[in-house]
């Protein structure tokens, strides 16, 4: 008889599994049907709500748009009656002949006694404009010639025209029509201006262009309040807003507010075109959502916007949704109860068979544990399990052998007993991190076992109980001592090579003697004072030693020339950065050492070499090394000059402030005032 699978379920379990999945399938189908019906019912209710709200808001917006259009048209017709009068058109035509010199008009008014003169007609025209403004309900008016000069005004103390008013005047003259300005706040309330073109008399030609512009100012606080007041057709929560576009900003016209004009939050979105489509947007007055729809008013950048609070509009819909969901949940619950009862009957019959199966599984688990133990006993890595108190509950033979104890002796010991106090403290911090995060971590730690140094890569992971709580930590120690020692030897060899190269570089130019060591010491200390990272400091250290390597390839007669260099010689000197890149380019430093050596000759303003980099295109280590290299060169003698004092060198660097990072220069000045700076300068002077 063939051997059966240890994990094979008995017939009763297989039957239970099939019935379970059948019950789940039936319940899932019921849930899916109920959810689908709920979804379509809610979607239908929401669609009906949206259609009703859109129709209502379109009706309200159209009604208010018509009211505003009629109001603006009435004002325009009132203005037309004035400017179409032959008396005004004739007077404007005669003033137009004066050009931009209307000063003579007022001079003649003061000196002429003849009523037929243009100046003597001026008071009468002013009175006519004043009477019209008062009769038509305008707060003021003025007539402006084609040069933007006011020659008739209802108020003797008329203020100068604003740039916006002048722009609208020029627009009327260029493209004749009735225009309205944006609403603004005046001493008496909200005001806006209407601009109408004045043509010459009809006998002067059929294709005449406007020769003047009539500007009438209107107080509109009361009218706007009347227009946007609540409508009996509106639902609860529906409000009407009149918004205007002023340059790139949207403003809500609210006459009852102190300022009258309230900036609209950018989250509302852009307004353009003739229609603001019905949609869900940010509330004009709050940060909540609202349904809104708007229409533009012709000839003026106004939009009448109807909006209703999102939550208020959907209150009835939300109630319907809740009722629908409750009915669906109750239906699903009833079917679930029936399926659970059927399942319980099956479970009560299968308990005995399930118990037998668990016994079989227990035997299987025991066999698997024995199998895993056999594997752990042969693995060379050290494996251990500690409880929450830090005591070892299990170690594999490799770990016990390395410690010099038996597996049984290791049980109950802690890290202090195994590794010593200092190492145990370091390991405890990583244990706390694993317990807090409940996530695996990897660390590298140096430990001593039986007086021998080991570098271990330790992987730690939380050990979870069946209920999900952490009851201990599993640690796997892997010996990487040989790899670490090889890497340390490689780095030592690299440092010795760099030092040898630096010494070789200084031998080609007697004036470079000691420059590299001085540059390295100053640059590292400056980097530390600026809290640069360890990687950046290591980069600066290596780059400082190799900073002059490119000069090996510069002709010595140019390098040691005592006088000024010619442009060609200077260009040859600057090639040392390119030479350095070629020499060091194939060496893998693991850090941006080559980039730092090449870029340290770049300047913040882009005037450096070899690539004319500027600003943040230059990496920080190169910026710092460029500054300290120049400073060290100034305070040391050269073939063409003696050494300069620290103060003189700093003055020169200040004159070249556009070349260097200002924060690094300030840090250098501070560093030179410290004890390190004093000791550094003493060594420079002694050298």
Mind explaining what this structure looks like?
The N and C termini lie far apart (97 Å). The chain has helices at residues 11-83, 86-96, 103-111, 118-136, 163-174, 221-227, 310-313, 315-376, 397-403, 407-410, 415-419, 421-437, 481-508, 515-529, 534-546, 556-559, 567-574, 576-584, 593-599, 620-634, 646-655, 662-672, 675-686; strands at residues 140-145, 150-153, 179-180, 184-186, 189-198, 212-219, 238-246, 249-253, 261-263, 275-282, 289-297, 302-309, 382-387, 392-395, 441-449, 452-464, 470-479. Strands 1, 2, 3, 4, 5 and 6 form a six-stranded antiparallel β-sheet that branches. A hairpin with a 7-residue loop joins β8 and β9. Helix content is 53%, strand content 17%. With 687 residues, the protein is α+β, with helices and mostly antiparallel strands. It has 23 helices and 17 strands.
In short:
The chain is an alpha+beta fold. It contains 23 helices and 17 strands. Strands 1, 2, 3, 4, 5 and 6 form a six-stranded antiparallel sheet that branches. Strands 9-8-7-12-11-10 form a six-stranded antiparallel sheet.
